[in-house]
UniProtKB/TrEMBL annotation:
<comment type="similarity">
    <text>Belongs to the tRNA(Ile)-lysidine synthase family.</text>
</comment>
<dbReference type="Pfam" id="PF11734">
    <property type="entry name" value="TilS_C"/>
</dbReference>
<dbReference type="InterPro" id="IPR012795">
    <property type="entry name" value="tRNA_Ile_lys_synt_N"/>
</dbReference>
<dbReference type="GO" id="GO:0006400">
    <property type="term" value="P:tRNA modification"/>
</dbReference>
<dbReference type="InterPro" id="IPR012796">
    <property type="entry name" value="Lysidine-tRNA-synth_C"/>
</dbReference>
<keyword id="KW-0067">ATP-binding</keyword>
<keyword id="KW-0547">Nucleotide-binding</keyword>
<dbReference type="InterPro" id="IPR015262">
    <property type="entry name" value="tRNA_Ile_lys_synt_subst-bd"/>
</dbReference>
<comment type="function">
    <text>Ligates lysine onto the cytidine present at position 34 of the AUA codon-specific tRNA(Ile) that contains the anticodon CAU, in an ATP-dependent manner. Cytidine is converted to lysidine, thus changing the amino acid specificity of the tRNA from methionine to isoleucine.</text>
</comment>
<feature type="domain" description="Lysidine-tRNA(Ile) synthetase C-terminal">
    <location>
        <begin position="383"/>
        <end position="453"/>
    </location>
</feature>
<dbReference type="InterPro" id="IPR011063">
    <property type="entry name" value="TilS/TtcA_N"/>
</dbReference>
<dbReference type="InterPro" id="IPR012094">
    <property type="entry name" value="tRNA_Ile_lys_synt"/>
</dbReference>
<dbReference type="GO" id="GO:0005737">
    <property type="term" value="C:cytoplasm"/>
</dbReference>
<dbReference type="GO" id="GO:0005524">
    <property type="term" value="F:ATP binding"/>
</dbReference>
<dbReference type="Pfam" id="PF01171">
    <property type="entry name" value="ATP_bind_3"/>
</dbReference>
<dbReference type="InterPro" id="IPR014729">
    <property type="entry name" value="Rossmann-like_a/b/a_fold"/>
</dbReference>
<keyword id="KW-0436">Ligase</keyword>
Length: 466
C-alpha cells in the first residue's frame, strides 16, 4: 500500500521532521494531488504544516487555467494555504532563448522559491514516483550522463533555504492511481503526458511496460541502485576534492590543471575531477554537456600532442600546453602590445609585468625581480617592449650566431597561448636585447658600470628563470 511504503521511506531517510513547513508543488495531476492529500492527512501525526503551490504555464489556454482553479478549490475545501501564479511561457519564448521545457522549468522553480520565502517553508515536496525514477535513469544512461547524473532522481537535495524531498519515489504510478481511487480524488489529466513527442513519454510507453512484465517490482531495484550510487558517489567525490585541490588552481580569467600530477590520480577520480571542474566553471550547466565531453578532456590530457585545444559547449575552451591544462572562456593570449621605455621610467604590461629602465649609478638590487645591464653606447633609445613578431631572431648570450624566437619558445616548452603575450625587449633599431624569463642577449654586460643602464623586470607567474 502507498501509505505504508511512503511512510517507511520518509522515516528511513528522515525526509520530514517535527516542525517542518512544507510547500507541495501541485499541478492537479494524479501524482501531486495524491501527494498533497497524503501529506495533509499526516500533518498532525508528523507535526508539520502543509501549503500548496501551483504554476499555470499557460500552454493550454483555458484548460490550464482551469487546472489552477481546480487546485485552488481543492485546497480551499481542506483549509490548505494556496499559492498560485500564471506565467506566460509562450510569450517568454518570443524574447528569451531556450527550449520550451527548460524555460517552463526555470520559471516554475523560480516561483517555488518565492513561495518558500513567503510561506517560510523549509521543505519543497515533489510528486516524482518510482516509475519516474526508472525512466530518468534509463534516459540518463542513454544520453550519457556523468557519474552523479547516472544515479537518477535524488530523494532529497538542497533547494532555496531548505530542501526538496520526494516521498513517492518508492511507489509506482499504479499505486498512486489506486490511492486516488480509494480516497475519491479526481485529478486533472494533462493530454501532453501521453504524446510521444517527448523522450520521457516514449520510455514510459515503450520501455517501462516491458521491464514491468519482466519484474513488476523493477522500480525497487532502480531506487536501490539510485541510493547506493549516490552514497558511493559522495564518498568518491570527497576523495576527488582532496586530490583535485592539490593540482587545480583558479585564476581570475582561467583555471589551470597540473597534467602530470593529475594523471597520477586513480582513473575513477580523474573522471570525477573533470566533472567537478566543469560543474564549477559553468554557472548554468548546458543541457548538451554529457559524459562524452569528460572523456574528450581526458583524451586531450593523455594525448601525445603537447599543444592542443578542445571546444566544449557554451564557449568553454580546454587548452593543453605541455604539462599545464587551461580551462577558459574566450582567448587566453589577448592582443599584441607595443610600448616605448626611456631612462628613469617604468611600464606595466597588460600581463601585469613591470619593466623599468634606470642608470646603474645609484641602483640597488632588490629581490623582487631580474635584471640585465646594458652599455649605454651599445643600444639606441628609447627601448621597445612588445610582443613577438614574425622573423624575430636574437643573439643569445653564450651562443654563436642568432636563434629564432620561435625555436627558443619551443626549446623552453613555452605554451602557445603564452608566446603571443611574452615580452620582447628591443632597442629602437630592432635589436632584441632580452626575452625576460627565458634568455639574455649578447648585449647584457653582466654587471653594472658607471655609464651603463639597468633593465629590470618584476615578474609574475608567467615568467620563469633567465
Amino acid at each position: 500500500m502507498l501509505e505504508q511504503t511512503s511512510r517507511e521511506f520518509i522515516q528511513r531517510h528522515r525526509l520530514l521532521e517535527k516542525g517542518d513547513r512544507l510547500v507541495v508543488a501541485v499541478s492537479g495531476g494524479p501524482d501531486s494531488l495524491a501527494l498533497i492529500h497524503f501529506l495533509h492527512a499526516l500533518r498532525d501525526e508528523l507535526d508539520v504544516e502543509v501549503a500548496c503551490a501551483h504554476v499555470d504555464h499557460m500552454f493550454r489556454g483555458r484548460e490550464s487555467y482551469e487546472d489552477l482553479l481546480f487546485v485552488e478549490g481543492f485546497c480551499k475545501e481542506r483549509d490548505i494555504p494556496f499559492f498560485g501564479e500564471r506565467i506566460n511561457i509562450p510569450e517568454l519564448m518570443e524574447t528569451e532563448k531556450g527550449s520550451l521545457q527548460e524555460m517552463a522549468r526555470k520559471a516554475r522553480y523560480g516561483y517555488l522559491r518565492q513561495v518558500m520565502d513567503r510561506y517560510g517553508g523549509n521543505k519543497l515536496a515533489l510528486g516524482h514516483h518510482g516509475d519516474d525514477q526508472v525512466e530518468t535513469i534509463l534516459m540518463k544512461w542513454t544520453r550519457g550522463a556523468g557519474a552523479k547524473g547516472r544515479a537518477g532522481i535524488p530523494f532529497k537535495r538542497p533547494f532555496s533555504a531548505g530542501e526538496i524531498i520526494r516521498p513517492f519515489l518508492p511507489v509506482t504510478k499504479a499505486e498512486i492511481l489506486d490511492y486516488c481511487k480509494r480516497e475519491r480524488l479526481f485529478p486533472r489529466i494533462d493530454p501532453s503526458n501521453s504524446k510521444d513527442t517527448y523522450t520521457r513519454n516514449r520510455f514510459r510507453s515503450r520501455v517501462l511496460p516491458f521491464l514491468k512484465e519482466e519484474n513488476p517490482h523493477v522500480h525497487r531495484n532502480f531506487q536501490q541502485f539510485s541510493e547506493e550510487s549516490l552514497e558511493d558517489e559522495e564518498f568518491l567525490e570527497e576523495l576527488t576534492r582532496v586530490k583535485l585541490n592539490k593540482v587545480w588552481k583558479v585564476e581570475e580569467d582561467f583555471s589551470t590543471l597540473d597534467i602530470k600530477r593529475f594523471l597520477q590520480m586513480a582513473q575513477p577520480l580523474q573522471r570525477r575531477a573533470i566533472n567537478l571542474i566543469l560543474n564549477y566553471l559553468y554557472k548554468l550547466k548546458p543541457a548538451s554537456l554529457s559524459s562524452i565531453h569528460i572523456y574528450d578532456v581526458l583524451r586531450l590530457l593523455k594525448g601525445e600532442n603537447p599543444n592542443a585545444q578542445l571546444d566544449l559547449p557554451s564557449g568553454l575552451k580546454v587548452t593543453k600546453a605541455y604539462q599545464t591544462c587551461y580551462f577558459h572562456f574566450g582567448n587566453l593570449s589577448g592582443g599584441p602590445y607595443y610600448f616605448e621605455l626611456g631612462i628613469h621610467s617604468s611600464i606595466i604590461l597588460p600581463t601585469g609585468i613591470r619593466i623599468s629602465l634606470m642608470p646603474s649609478r645609484g641602483y640597488v638590487q632588490d629581490d623582487g625581480g631580474e635584471t640585465i645591464h646594458l652599455n649605454r653606447d651599445g643600444v639606441t633609445l628609447p627601448l621597445i617592449v612588445r610582443t613577438r613578431e614574425a622573423g624575430d631572431r636574437m643573439k643569445v648570450k653564450g651562443m654563436e650566431g642568432s636563434k629564432k624566437l620561435k625555436t627558443l619558445f619551443i626549446d623552453e616548452k613555452i605554451p602557445l597561448h603564452l608566446r603571443d603575450r611574452w615580452p620582447v625587449v628591443t632597442d629602437s633599431e630592432g635589436r632584441i636585447l632580452w626575452v625576460p624569463g627565458l634568455r639574455k642577449s649578447v648585449y647584457d654586460t653582466g654587471e653594472g658600470r658607471e655609464d651603463s643602464l639597468v633593465l629590470q623586470v618584476k615578474s609574475n607567474h608567467l615568467l620563469g628563470g633567465s
